[in-house]
Fold these 3 entries.
Entry 1:
Amino acid sequence: MRLRALLAVLVVPFVMLVTAPVALACSCAATPFAEQLGRSDVAFTGTAVAMADDAAGPTVSSVDPVRWTFAVSRIYRGAPGAHRVVTTARSDASCGAGFQVGREYLVLGSGDPVEANLCNGTREVGVGAPVHTELGAGRSPPADRSDSATPAADPGAPSAPLIAVGIGLAAAIVLAGVAVRRHQTTRRNR
């Protein structure tokens, strides 16, 4: 009976973790686009070409910044060059912009490198109102100016949540094995 209770204590939380839907912690107040644009020093459209992740050490947080390099196609505010580095939180759960290589985005942000997030109006082009109706025609980036941009690390590397689930599964298996062995030893000693 104790073995069943122990297995239930180990297995049930793991099953709940694996089968639970993803919960997003980011919550943005509904803000008109004109206000989002008014808070931004930089506004441009561009294609995400690379991501660099400088996380080091055994602990990685969803709020840790990652750097994205964009090939700029149109400039609406500020003066980015042909390439621009943008930082955002690692995960959209922490309001990270959730960029994907090869997709085009409208990026609104401030600072150098530009800081962007889900709440400041940054979004994929084609999602929401068309960019040209909100910002006008914009201008092309100068061909001779390019902000230094470091190509990204391999975006196909395993993510921290996947590694954590793997470690949790391995620990649950080891603990279940120890419990079974103790139960067998206890039964033999009776």
Entry 2:
Amino acid sequence: MIRSQTILLPKALRAGDTVAVAALSGPLDSEFEAAFRDGVAEIERLGYAVHVSPLVDVARSWWWSAARPSEIAEELNRLLRDPGIRAIFALTGGRTVLGYLDRIDYDAVRADPKPIVGFSDIDVLLLALHGRTGLACFHADLVAEGLGDWHTDDRRRKELTDVYTGLLTGAPPAGPLPQGGPWESWRGGRARGALLGGLLNRVIRIQATPFALPPERFDGAILFWEELMTNFAGVWTDLQALRLAGVFDRIAGMVVGVPTEVQPTEGGPNALREIVLDALGDRDIPVVGNADIGHQPPNVPLPLGVGAELDGDAATLSLLGPATVRA
């Protein structure tokens, strides 16, 4: 059952629209310049003109960030307020977004909702925007880490082009999301609910701020998450935090992405599955693992707040409605 929640669908893109590539967290590292150019070319191949933010510059940075948080917020707000910019794609992830959540012009989002696309640290931004405005943001490929890799596999490129284009242009979804490799059934059953989630440690951290998602946002939701650069004990601990917060008593299903640089603490090849099911206990909800979300892109796009059906037996996920609205 999909619980009623306030959702703000962004306006659909049309061929020739201008979209921005923005440094919303980390800088453009020289080692990713070629991937960045490939990512921009991929957006252009989808049929859109690209405006590159001034902060996307290999010659500039501030500590581990593209710029000071106040500068990034200023640039983001400019893009949110600019009627000529119809979507915003994040350059890369990083460690900065928590530094400027309180500087975002949320009224500009409500006045002119646009697709915001990215993952990793960008999930903090997506969750804050969704929590404060209901915007259906896209947990999806970054420009330099994801989109820049599409050209390496023609079959996968066609599948991703079709699903990204359909979602960005307001087309009704058709069938299960395309899988780059076999997804795994960790617990059977079916559930319908609104998509919600992101990088696990960022979901945990934003919940400790005034920008935390209200508990009712998790009611009947399909919770998706992925993780990197930790160990299984760390994942288990974060899952226990969600359990203690009552999140698992509210959700209808779970999708787990492929872990990246997550070191086994104990257990064998099925250890991640085992700690997930241990954290869920006897809650009878479907769980699918090894999904194409996270730091081993390409990612399938998952729009926050949009209804989806999770089939735990077939290990599939299908969107139930459009992620953007046509004018």
Entry 3:
Amino acid sequence: MAKTLPVMKGKALWAKVFTPDTKFDSDGLYSIEVVIPEEEAQEVCEYLEGLRDERLAAEVKANPKAKSLSARPVFEQDLDKDGNETGNLKFKAKLKATVRGRDNNTYKQKPIVVDAKRTPMTEETLIGNGSVVKVAYEPVTYVMASSKQVGVSLRLKGVQVIELVEYGNKNATSMFDEEDGYQTEPVTGRTQAEDIDFDDGQADGEVEGDF
């Protein structure tokens, strides 16, 4: 049985979920930021902070010198163009396009991207800022030696687009009214999409591994 993953819902920001970004990682990195009103993000915050604090307590218990460690925030404040807080919180999920396995071989991976009916989407439809999405992720706690902080990262596993704000020409579809006639066919073939439950839920325990 597939493991139930935690899911958060909000508005997408800088979604790179079809083609990995190689600007800062030559192997490629998929990523998406999710913007959620602060009052709606409390459950997500409490869940992630709980995992982080458990890791911090375990590090201190294992090594008394670790008392100098501090907790890293699990979110960022969303700011407007003038640098003022908007009342929203930002959460970033990412996934390395190439990883090295325990057998020392390299493997390709990518997130699942589906529409509201869980039909797989293709890169022809780009997800613009402001799209309403659900993001399934795996939380991974870590210790950052350079800053002596304990935090939790979100490994991107899947994206469900509930309301699409398409990136690019926003007027492309507004030039016409709907008519009876040809409709594009959905992508066929089995994918891992059926293994991801986009209902809200929380994962159990701590997950380790590379992004």
